[in-house]
Protein backbone atom coordinates (compact mmCIF):
# COMPACT_ATOMS: atom_id res chain seq x y z
CA UNK A 1 0.00 0.00 0.00
CA UNK A 2 1.29 3.47 -0.86
CA UNK A 3 2.68 5.26 2.21
CA UNK A 4 2.58 8.93 3.26
CA UNK A 5 6.29 9.32 2.49
CA UNK A 6 5.73 7.84 -0.99
CA UNK A 7 2.85 10.29 -1.53
CA UNK A 8 5.22 13.15 -0.60
CA UNK A 9 7.93 11.95 -2.99
CA UNK A 10 5.29 11.50 -5.69
CA UNK A 11 4.17 15.13 -5.19
CA UNK A 12 7.75 16.47 -5.28
CA UNK A 13 8.41 14.57 -8.50
CA UNK A 14 5.15 15.84 -10.07
CA UNK A 15 6.03 19.44 -9.24
CA UNK A 16 9.62 19.04 -10.46
CA UNK A 17 8.54 17.51 -13.80
CA UNK A 18 5.68 20.00 -14.28
CA UNK A 19 8.00 22.99 -13.75
CA UNK A 20 10.47 21.55 -16.28
CA UNK A 21 7.68 21.02 -18.84
CA UNK A 22 5.94 24.38 -18.27
CA UNK A 23 8.39 26.57 -20.28
CA UNK A 24 8.31 24.01 -23.12
CA UNK A 25 4.54 23.53 -23.25
CA UNK A 26 3.22 26.98 -22.30
CA UNK A 27 3.37 28.46 -25.82
CA UNK A 28 1.82 25.37 -27.53
CA UNK A 29 -0.99 25.38 -24.92
CA UNK A 30 -1.71 29.09 -25.53
CA UNK A 31 -1.69 28.56 -29.33
CA UNK A 32 -4.05 25.56 -29.00
CA UNK A 33 -6.42 27.51 -26.73
CA UNK A 34 -6.61 30.25 -29.39
CA UNK A 35 -7.12 27.64 -32.15
CA UNK A 36 -9.89 25.92 -30.16
CA UNK A 37 -11.56 29.28 -29.46
CA UNK A 38 -11.68 30.01 -33.21
CA UNK A 39 -12.68 26.43 -34.04
CA UNK A 40 -15.54 26.04 -31.55
CA UNK A 41 -16.55 29.74 -31.40
CA UNK A 42 -16.31 29.48 -27.59
CA UNK A 43 -13.46 30.02 -25.11
CA UNK A 44 -10.91 27.32 -25.98
CA UNK A 45 -10.10 26.33 -22.40
CA UNK A 46 -12.76 24.05 -20.93
CA UNK A 47 -13.16 23.28 -17.24
CA UNK A 48 -15.36 20.73 -15.54
CA UNK A 49 -15.88 19.49 -11.97
CA UNK A 50 -14.18 16.15 -11.33
CA UNK A 51 -13.66 13.94 -8.28
CA UNK A 52 -10.15 14.19 -6.87
CA UNK A 53 -8.10 12.83 -3.98
CA UNK A 54 -10.22 11.99 -0.91
CA UNK A 55 -13.34 12.54 -3.11
CA UNK A 56 -12.80 16.33 -3.12
CA UNK A 57 -14.10 18.13 -6.20
CA UNK A 58 -11.79 20.22 -8.40
CA UNK A 59 -11.92 21.87 -11.82
CA UNK A 60 -10.10 19.86 -14.47
CA UNK A 61 -8.71 21.81 -17.44
CA UNK A 62 -8.96 20.62 -21.03
CA UNK A 63 -8.89 22.13 -24.50
CA UNK A 64 -12.42 22.63 -25.81
CA UNK A 65 -13.14 20.10 -28.56
CA UNK A 66 -16.93 20.08 -28.87
CA UNK A 67 -19.00 22.49 -30.91
CA UNK A 68 -22.24 23.84 -29.56
CA UNK A 69 -24.59 24.61 -32.43
CA UNK A 70 -28.35 24.95 -32.48
CA UNK A 71 -29.86 23.42 -35.61
CA UNK A 72 -33.04 24.54 -37.35
CA UNK A 73 -34.98 21.87 -35.48
CA UNK A 74 -33.81 23.33 -32.19
CA UNK A 75 -31.50 20.38 -31.45
CA UNK A 76 -28.18 21.00 -29.76
CA UNK A 77 -25.11 19.58 -31.52
CA UNK A 78 -22.26 18.73 -29.16
CA UNK A 79 -20.13 16.66 -31.54
CA UNK A 80 -16.37 17.16 -31.80
CA UNK A 81 -14.95 19.43 -34.48
CA UNK A 82 -12.32 18.11 -36.91
CA UNK A 83 -9.59 19.75 -34.83
CA UNK A 84 -11.31 18.47 -31.68
CA UNK A 85 -11.25 14.88 -32.94
CA UNK A 86 -7.53 15.19 -33.65
CA UNK A 87 -6.81 16.66 -30.21
CA UNK A 88 -8.84 13.94 -28.48
CA UNK A 89 -7.27 11.08 -30.45
CA UNK A 90 -3.74 12.36 -29.69
CA UNK A 91 -4.66 13.31 -26.07
CA UNK A 92 -3.36 16.84 -26.75
CA UNK A 93 -6.66 18.14 -25.35
CA UNK A 94 -5.31 17.17 -21.92
CA UNK A 95 -2.20 19.40 -22.06
CA UNK A 96 -3.76 22.09 -19.80
CA UNK A 97 -3.90 19.50 -17.01
CA UNK A 98 -0.28 20.45 -16.45
CA UNK A 99 -1.75 23.34 -14.42
CA UNK A 100 -3.84 20.88 -12.37
CA UNK A 101 -0.58 19.08 -11.53
CA UNK A 102 1.16 22.33 -10.53
CA UNK A 103 -1.82 23.28 -8.33
CA UNK A 104 -1.59 19.89 -6.58
CA UNK A 105 -5.00 18.66 -7.76
CA UNK A 106 -3.61 15.97 -10.06
CA UNK A 107 -0.54 13.79 -10.51
CA UNK A 108 1.15 12.66 -13.71
CA UNK A 109 0.20 9.07 -12.81
CA UNK A 110 -2.96 7.87 -11.06
CA UNK A 111 -6.59 6.92 -11.69
CA UNK A 112 -8.29 9.17 -14.25
CA UNK A 113 -10.53 11.75 -12.54
CA UNK A 114 -14.19 10.96 -13.19
CA UNK A 115 -17.34 13.04 -12.96
CA UNK A 116 -19.47 12.65 -9.83
CA UNK A 117 -21.29 9.34 -9.45
CA UNK A 118 -18.27 7.06 -9.84
CA UNK A 119 -15.21 7.32 -7.54
CA UNK A 120 -17.05 9.41 -4.96
CA UNK A 121 -19.66 6.68 -4.38
CA UNK A 122 -17.20 3.79 -4.01
CA UNK A 123 -17.46 1.77 -0.80
CA UNK A 124 -15.18 -0.36 1.39
CA UNK A 125 -11.84 -1.49 -0.05
CA UNK A 126 -12.61 0.17 -3.39
CA UNK A 127 -12.18 3.60 -1.78
CA UNK A 128 -8.43 2.92 -1.67
CA UNK A 129 -8.13 4.53 -5.07
CA UNK A 130 -9.05 7.88 -3.49
CA UNK A 131 -5.81 7.84 -1.45
CA UNK A 132 -3.85 9.09 -4.47
CA UNK A 133 -4.41 12.14 -6.64
CA UNK A 134 -6.05 11.42 -9.99
CA UNK A 135 -3.58 11.21 -12.86
CA UNK A 136 -3.09 12.36 -16.43
CA UNK A 137 -2.10 8.79 -17.21
CA UNK A 138 -2.03 5.46 -15.40
CA UNK A 139 -2.50 1.71 -15.85
CA UNK A 140 -6.27 1.93 -16.47
CA UNK A 141 -5.84 4.90 -18.82
CA UNK A 142 -3.35 2.94 -20.90
CA UNK A 143 -5.55 -0.15 -21.04
CA UNK A 144 -8.60 1.89 -22.09
CA UNK A 145 -6.86 4.40 -24.36
CA UNK A 146 -9.50 3.63 -27.05
CA UNK A 147 -12.41 3.79 -24.61
CA UNK A 148 -14.46 6.22 -26.72
CA UNK A 149 -14.31 3.89 -29.73
CA UNK A 150 -15.18 0.85 -27.58
CA UNK A 151 -18.23 2.64 -26.16
CA UNK A 152 -19.38 3.77 -29.62
CA UNK A 153 -19.77 0.10 -30.59
CA UNK A 154 -22.04 -0.73 -27.63
CA UNK A 155 -25.85 -0.80 -27.78
CA UNK A 156 -26.01 0.75 -24.31
CA UNK A 157 -22.72 2.67 -23.78
CA UNK A 158 -23.65 3.97 -20.31
CA UNK A 159 -24.50 0.47 -19.01
CA UNK A 160 -21.31 -0.99 -20.53
CA UNK A 161 -19.20 1.82 -19.06
CA UNK A 162 -20.65 1.47 -15.54
CA UNK A 163 -20.82 -2.32 -15.35
CA UNK A 164 -17.83 -3.48 -17.38
CA UNK A 165 -15.22 -0.76 -17.92
CA UNK A 166 -15.63 1.08 -14.59
CA UNK A 167 -15.54 -2.14 -12.55
CA UNK A 168 -12.31 -3.17 -14.30
CA UNK A 169 -10.79 0.30 -13.84
CA UNK A 170 -11.44 0.15 -10.09
CA UNK A 171 -9.69 -3.24 -9.91
CA UNK A 172 -6.70 -1.94 -11.92
CA UNK A 173 -6.42 1.26 -9.86
CA UNK A 174 -6.68 -0.61 -6.55
CA UNK A 175 -3.79 -2.80 -7.69
CA UNK A 176 -1.81 0.36 -8.56
CA UNK A 177 -2.33 1.84 -5.06
CA UNK A 178 -1.63 -1.46 -3.28
CA UNK A 179 1.57 -2.19 -5.24
CA UNK A 180 2.79 1.38 -5.74
CA UNK A 181 6.42 2.14 -6.53
CA UNK A 182 8.18 5.19 -7.98
CA UNK A 183 9.54 2.91 -10.71
CA UNK A 184 5.96 2.07 -11.75
CA UNK A 185 5.15 5.78 -12.18
CA UNK A 186 8.19 6.23 -14.42
CA UNK A 187 7.17 3.17 -16.42
CA UNK A 188 3.64 4.51 -17.01
CA UNK A 189 4.94 7.97 -18.00
CA UNK A 190 7.36 6.42 -20.53
CA UNK A 191 4.66 4.08 -21.90
CA UNK A 192 2.20 6.98 -22.28
CA UNK A 193 4.81 9.12 -24.05
CA UNK A 194 5.58 6.30 -26.49
CA UNK A 195 1.84 5.76 -27.14
CA UNK A 196 1.27 9.38 -28.24
TrEMBL record:
Keywords: Membrane, Transferase, Transmembrane, Transmembrane helix. Signal peptide: none annotated. One of its GO terms (molecular function) is transferase activity. The keyword Nucleus does not apply. Residues 10-193 form the Bacterial sugar transferase domain. Pfam families: Bac_transf. The chain crosses the membrane at residues 12-35. Belongs to the bacterial sugar transferase family. This is Sugar transferase.
Amino acid sequence: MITRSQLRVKRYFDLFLALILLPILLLPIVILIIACTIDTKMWGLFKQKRVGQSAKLFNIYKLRTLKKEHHQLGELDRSATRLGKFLRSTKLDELPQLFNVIKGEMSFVGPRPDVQGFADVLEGEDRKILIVKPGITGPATLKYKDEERVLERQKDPDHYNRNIIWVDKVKINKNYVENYSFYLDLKFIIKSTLNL
